Amino acid sequence: MSTSTLTSKGQTTIPKDVRNRLKLRPGDRLEFVIEEEGRVLMLSASVDVSELAGMLKPPTRPVSVGDMNRAIRKRGGRR
Fold first, then answer.
1. pLDDT in tens, 25-57
2. Right CATH number for 1-48 from 2.10.260.10, 3.30.300.20, 3.90.25.10, 2.30.30.100?
3. Backbone angles phi and psi of 10, in degrees to 5
4. pTM for the predicted model, two decimal places
């Protein structure tokens, strides 16, 4: 388990093994999630767009821009 010390200014150094695991680089943003049990999760809030490739399945049928606009209006989007 990695540990770190908090400074009087509320700063800490993230251990190298944690930075590597989260693929963190200088300038990356972090997100902290506090769970009900009191556990805190630290997540990388910076995502390389190439990591998103393949997340969505191809559509089962082609959808026109008009169909997309109608669906948006139906769900309360701008008209």
1. 899 999 999 999 999 998 888 877 777 788 888
2. 2.10.260.10
3. 80, 20
4. 0.53
